[in-house]
């Protein structure tokens, strides 16, 4: 049975309203991608400064021999960056599967911190022991406080002076729009190969670097900054991937709405014309009588 003109008009109006919402969300996602990508780029210069500081320290001291501890009961810090909003496709699902797969290859007592309620739910359903759930930042301004909370939450693992392993899991943007790929990054320990590569870097300045005060204290401060920048970049990349996924979903939704709206408007005008024709026929018939 054909819908009434009033029902069709109502469906057309609803589709138009939904189209406006989708366009707004699409614009917000596009803006989000730009701001998080810019945040990552802006940190490149600071990261180079921190790295140069590490080079200066390591040129004046022996390599750190506090290698990671090993064993089934050794604490292993794991931070997973997910999403706590919808309309992101398989963003959380693919990352959760990746985390479960990779964690089986990591030995030790795993302590898992999760960013994003939806990701927390996925990992909880997989019977993983989770330490805490953090809210996903709503803007670039919220990334720094989150990174500070993550450092505070995990720093007790290094109170003994030994570097327990630290693994980061997140979605990383792909080359094309809407593409992302799960990534595992082992941030700690600062292995000897990494330290030696820094120590062997050629200093570009006119004189050899020299640290003031305690080299050990300076080195620990720089390592903390290294951790901060790495966590910040990881979080920003995850948020850029999330917004990219949402942008593609909104583009797909916008196309579907346009097709549905075109069909509804065609049906509405067709039925409206039929109603007008019927009224004209009735008038003509009545005039003839």
From TrEMBL:
GO MF annotation terms: proton-transporting ATP synthase activity, rotational mechanism
GO annotation, cellular component aspect: proton-transporting ATP synthase complex
Ion transport in keyword set: yes
Topology class, membrane: Peripheral membrane protein
Keyword Metal-binding attached: no
Gene3D superfamilies for this protein: 3.40.1380.10, ATP synthase, gamma subunit, helix hairpin domain (1.10.287.80)
InterPro entries: Alt_ATP_synth_F1_gsu (IPR017709), ATP_synth_F1_ATPase_gsu (IPR035968), ATP_synth_F1_gsu (IPR000131)
Alphabetic keyword roster: ATP synthesis, CF(1), Hydrogen ion transport, Ion transport, Membrane, Transport
Localization annotation: Membrane
Similarity comment: Belongs to the ATPase gamma chain family.
Known function: Produces ATP from ADP in the presence of a proton gradient across the membrane. The gamma chain is believed to be important in regulating ATPase activity and the flow of protons through the CF(0) complex.
Record's protein name: F0F1 ATP synthase subunit gamma
């Amino acid at each position: 049975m054909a819908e009434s003109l009033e029902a069709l008009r109502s469906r057309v109006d609803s589709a138009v309203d939904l189209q406006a919402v989708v366009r707004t969300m699409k614009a917000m996602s596009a803006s989000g991608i730009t701001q998080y990508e810019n945040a990552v780029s802006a940190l490149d210069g600071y990261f180079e400064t921190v790295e140069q500081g590490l080079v200066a320290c390591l040129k004046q001291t022996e390599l750190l021999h506090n290698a990671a501890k090993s064993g089934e009961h050794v604490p292993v810090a794991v931070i997973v960056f997910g999403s706590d909003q919808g309309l992101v496709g398989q963003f959380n699902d693919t990352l959760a599967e990746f985390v479960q797969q990779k964690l089986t290859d990591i030995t030790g007592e795993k302590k898992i911190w999760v960013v994003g309620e939806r990701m927390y739910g996925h990992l909880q359903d997989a019977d993983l022991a989770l330490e805490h759930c953090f809210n996903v930042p709503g803007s670039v301004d919220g990334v720094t406080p989150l990174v500070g909370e993550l450092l505070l939450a995990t720093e007790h693992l290094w109170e003994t002076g030994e570097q327990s392993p630290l693994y980061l899991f997140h979605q990383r943007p792909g080359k094309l729009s809407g593409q992302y790929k799960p990534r595992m990054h082992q941030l700690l320990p600062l292995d000897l190969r990494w330290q030696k590569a820094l120590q062997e870097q050629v200093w570009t300045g006119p004189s050899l670097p020299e640290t003031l005060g305690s080299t050990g204290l300076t080195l620990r401060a720089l390592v903390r900054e290294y951790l901060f920048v790495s966590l910040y970049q990881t979080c920003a990349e995850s948020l850029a991937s999330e917004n990219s996924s949402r942008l593609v979903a909104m583009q797909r939704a916008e196309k579907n709405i346009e097709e549905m709206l075109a069909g509804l408007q065609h049906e509405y005008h067709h039925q409206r014309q039929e109603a007008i024709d019927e009224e004209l026929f009735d008038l003509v018939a009545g005039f003839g009588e």
